[in-house]
């Protein structure tokens, strides 16, 4: 069966758009667009049969947005292991602690999932050049998949992005544009470049299909747990596509009859040096005010403003979860704790998830018998020095 993609739908005003035309944000209100599928037809899908297919994000093409599989650009992304972390669990008094090890994706991060889906669909719709702002991993992924697809890629990134990300961009032949400031400044430069050249902007949630690649993490978790879901998911949150995508996946799977109504508590973790989602959550706000003077070594969550802030907050609140911030010292110490205890070379963003779990456990918000999943979203190999040496206190 080919893709059951039906239409695009604005997550704010509900506007329906033609999925076979190229779109960014909703033309009415700049809302995030979701890809929607004919799930009534998809009820013929057998989840047991799906389990016999090769692993990866393209395991269920019926629920992915590419109509002709010849347009799929893959480097083997997805199908990452869900690893039981028994030593960490014992230390924390938890019986079922897991790490979803996304650092084993192509280019070393979960960004490969979303970029594979986005670039495949963009190519199918006739796009020949792409641009993106990045804190590191998304740009690396777009450069790699752009090379795979034979498309021009221009990446805009903060000048202080770790050197290994820049090495990847050069290796894959992408245009690299360093900017003064943070990812919001890189985003402004990428938008200006797109307007000038016609390159398609694949910024986080500013097009509909990166979310489709990221939602596959939700499908993989459900399958790994025998078509149930964990009790708690702790996720490092910058642009938030992973939380948003998994929340969308859970809705799709329930409609298909693959899972029931139970949902994990979604925990969004940020650094104390850049915590706009946490502040909005605590203030009871629907949108997050941009964070000023953002500073954290965990560059993947150094995102002062997220386009999908309202979707992140919606998932957190509807799930009974929460958003919380952790310190730079906690991020550094817990990334090393994961690495030395479980042999998983954690990135600082992965360290943030364990730091959050420690806080939740100490507050009695996670019970010993609950199944908890931490996301290590990328490999620690890309960060140039051991974290305790590199960690910095957030600017006040």
Commentary on this structure:
The protein is 38% helix and 16% strand. It has 396 residues and is α/β, with parallel strands linked by helices. The chain has a domain at 82-109 and 209-390: Rossmann fold, CATH 3.40.50.1100. Strands 4-5-13-10-11-12 form a 6-stranded mixed β-sheet, sandwiched between helices. A 4-stranded parallel β-sheet has the order 8-7-6-9, with helices on both faces.
Give the helix/strand layout.
Layout: E1 5-10, E2 16-17, E3 33-37, H1 39-42, H2 47-50, E4 82-84, H3 86-92, E5 96-101, H4 111-124, E6 129-133, H5 137-149, E7 152-158, H6 163-172, E8 175-179, H7 183-197, E9 200-201, H8 210-224, E10 232-236, H9 241-256, E11 265-271, H10 276-283, H11 309-318, E12 322-326, H12 328-342, H13 348-362, E13 371-376, H14 387-390
Parallel strand pairs: 5-13, 6-7, 6-9, 7-8, 10-11, 10-13, 11-12
Antiparallel strand pairs: 1-2, 1-3, 4-5
Helix pairs in contact: 4-5, 4-8, 5-6, 8-9, 9-11, 12-13
